[in-house]
Structure formats: structure tokens, C-alpha cells
Amino acid sequence: MNETNIRLVFDSCKQQIYDLLRIQAPAEFLDVFDQGGDGQLNEDEQILIFSLVKEKMQVLADELCIVHEYQLYKDLMREVRLLEVDIGVFQDELRKNIQENQLREYVDIGDEKLQEFYRDWERKFAEFGDESLIKIEELKYEHEEQMEMLNVKLDRAVEAVKIKPSAKLKEMQNNEKLVAVNERVEEAMNYRKELKILEIKEA
User: Fold this and answer.
1) Which of 6, 62, 64, 198 could disulfide-link 69, Cβ–Cβ 3.0 to 4.6 Å?
2) d(CA 60, CA 20)
3) pLDDT tens, 37-78?
4) Helix (H, G, I), strand (E, B) or coil at 1
5) Using CA atoms, how far apart are residues 188 and 171, in angstroms rounded to an integer?
6) Whole-prediction pTM
7) Domain assignment present for 14
8) Is 162 helix (H, G, I), strand (E, B) or coil?
9) Last-in-domain residue among 81, 100, 119
10) Domain contains 77
11) Residue ending a domain, choose from 62, 81, 100
């Protein structure tokens, strides 16, 4: 109930409100019942109005009983009981509205948390993908460097293999061939023995 609605209610029940609460204007009504100071009456503040009216009726009923106006007392107490029923119904409605609002807020909060989780997960997954691509590039670069180093080592090994045989070995091989051609068998066999030892040593 905002000030406009209160003014409409006030205009239609001005005399009754004055008789029960001694309030003459909508502004006074808000001053008395607007405990939150937000310019409107929430459900609790609306229940407070009915509770105050009921208390006022109870006081009047007690005073009627003191002056022996039992019929008026009876009529007023019946109205008090009806008002209590109305307050109970209104409170049930209030609890239902509060429960629905809280349930709606709970669902909204849960949905927001879920969306936040999805967003966080997608961000982390994207970061992980970027990091993985960077690592793959680093591994490729490292692999290329290792391959280059291996090729350098291999080239060195090949160069080492290409070392020329010693001059003495070449000379003995030539001598062995010359001796064999001239059919100097015993001398050739001696050359072969020495040549074999030298080749093993050279290898």
C-alpha cells in the first residue's frame, strides 16, 4: 500500500478511521504505521493496522462491560473475533507470499550460481586451451632444437668416421698386393699377418 492507495482507502473510510485511530489524514496514517520509512506499508505494517484496531475494540468492549452494556459488548466482541479470523487469514496469505518470494529468490540465486559456475568453467577451459596451445608450441620448438643438436652430433660422428687411414697401412696393403703378384707366398703371408693386426688396431 503506497500513499495513493492509502489516500483512496482513507477517503472511503475517513470517519471510521478517525473513530478508531484518531487519524485525520493519509500523511498521519503513514507517520504512524510506516515503520520502515519507505513511504508504503508492507504486509507486516498492514497486519499492524488490523491488530491495533482489534486492540482498540477490545479496550472499548472492556469499557462497555464495566458500564453493563452487555449487548454492545457482545456485538463488539463478535466483531473482534471476526477481525481475528481476518487477521489469521491475512497472516497465512502473508506467510504464503513470503514463502513464494523466498522460494523464487532461492531459485534465482541457484540459477545465478549455476550460470556463474558455467561462466567460470568456460573461462578456465578457455585458459586451459590457451595454455595447452602455448605448451604445444614450446614442445615443438624444444623438439626442433633437440633434433638440430642431434643432427649436429650425427654430422660430427660422420666426420669422425671419414678419417683417412694411416699411410703405413696403405703402404703395407700395396706391398702385400705386390708380393702376392710376384708369387712370393711366404713373404705375402707375413705381410697379411702384420696387415691384419694393423687394420684391427686402425679400426
Assistant:
1) 64
2) 10
3) 777 777 777 778 788 888 888 888 888 888 888 788 888 788
4) coil
5) 14
6) 0.41
7) yes
8) coil
9) 100
10) yes
11) 100
Q: Which three cell numbers stand for residue 24?
A: 485525520
Q: Is the pLDDT of residue 152 over 80?
A: yes
pLDDT, one tens digit per residue, over 117-147 is 999 999 999 999 999 999 999 999 999 888 8
Total count of residues recorded for the chain: 203
Taking the C-alpha atoms of residue 56 and residue 60, their distance in angstroms, rounded to an integer, is 6
- The chain-wide mean pLDDT, for the chain, equals 80
* Residue 173 lies in domain: 167-202
Q: How far apart are CA 174 and CA 39, in angstroms?
A: 122
Written as one letter, the residue type at 90 is F
For cell 519507505, name the residue: 38
Torsion angle (degrees, nearest 10) of CA 164, 169, 175, 180: -100
Using the structure block, give the residue that is written with the C-alpha cell 596451445: 133
Q: How far apart are CA 70 and CA 87, in angstroms?
A: 25
